[in-house]
Amino acid sequence: MKRHLIMLLGLACMSFIYTGCTKEPLNNLSDEESRIYITDHDSSVNFTNYKTFSISDSVAVIDNGQMTKHLDGVDSAYISAVTKYMEQYGYTLVSNEQNPDVGVDVNRIISTSTGVISYGDYWGSYDSYWDPYYWGYPGYGYYVPYAYSVYQIKEGAISVDMLDLKNALQDKKINVIWTGLIRGSGIFYPTVADSQVKALFDLSPYLKTN
Amino acid sequence: MKKFKIILAAFGMICMSQSVSAQKNTFSLDLNYNYSMPLGGFKSDIISNNSPRGFMVGLMYSISDNLSVGLGFGFQDYYQKYPRALYPLGKSQEVSAVLTNSVQTTPILLQAKYYPLSATYLKPYISLGAGANIIAFNQYLGEFGSSATNVEFRAQGGLGLMIPFKKYSSSGINVGAIYDYSPYNKNGYHDLNNVNFQAGVIINLK
Hints:
The structure holds two protein chains of two kinds.
Chain A: H1 2-20, H2 31-34, E1 36-41, E2 52-55, E3 59-63, E4 66-70, H3 73-88, E5 92-93, E6 102-110, E7 117-118, H4 119-124, H5 126-129, E8 141-143, E9 150-151, E10 156-164, H6 168-171, E11 173-183, H7 190-202
Parallel strand pairs in A: 2-5, 2-6, 3-6, 8-11
Antiparallel strand pairs in A: 1-11, 3-4, 6-10, 7-9, 10-11
Helix pairs in contact in A: 3-7
Chain B: H1 2-19, E1 26-38, H2 40-46, E2 53-62, E3 67-88, E4 94-114, E5 123-141, E6 144-164, E7 172-181, E8 194-204
Antiparallel strand pairs in B: 1-2, 1-8, 2-3, 3-4, 4-5, 5-6, 6-7, 7-8
């Protein structure tokens, strides 16, 4: 009887370890720890050659490949934060009509399904999200010299892209010279926008113009 | 593979040498809590934290007073979260992330225990084991993870002490230490070697 009790107790302890004591990684992450910041850039570009920039007046919300322009408190907070850090890196904000060297846009990429969205798809439709007309170059196409790997997206992400408008006429295309991506929990709040954008710029000291 | 063959051969030789003098034909159940400490590449490249989350169970058949053989299986959960750092993704691409590694191992092993001093009250033993190791490796950048499950070879050797509940009892308390040789040649990693400390009970099933 005692033997059976010891055995049962031992097996119960092992079942407890197996089912209850494993450390579940996602349960041990704060919102801040859950986020990742990815940057990429055209390594052939010397960013000190760019001095002025213009930023889009709204955010492209790309929801399962469908784009709508949007501007709410979150969007404004991200646009303001990007403007702030662009200026801190030495760029001067000008209007579209003043022939900016760089165009900057902000995008929300959202998937409402649990399917797979590759960022290749995102780049492939870039001119439908941001008509080159917006930047004063109607009829031009975009050229993207790199691509993100394929990711599974089950929620939202924010991307910030820098477009080379200075050389668009010469190149006959608009090169995407820098991109930053923010993914993770709790990023769609105005209060966190500044720190999220700062993280992207901290990853990219080469963007400085001086 | 060579090491696996050597261990199997040793295992077989021990069994053959003892089977002729088999005195007891009883089964016992080994139930052990397992505390594991990563070593080598496992510690330096994947997880350096010790794991207090594990167990090992063995169903052993005693073919003599000195030797028992049987089948064991276990489970161990390893986990480590590293502070935010930069990781290159490509030529010009970088990611800033909190990296989490989570490894669960489930060994299924042929085991043998040799008791050189079977007549004494305290029974020290040498243990050997070899078999399969089911490895689940989950790696997360932030909350974005990838996972892989593989079956690899695993061998182990250890020393322990069985303390009978009472004189002449073949049930008792078990304490021991085991070294695990656990190759893992995936994604640039080489091993999940570790050393384990066990404590539990050995229950004679008669």
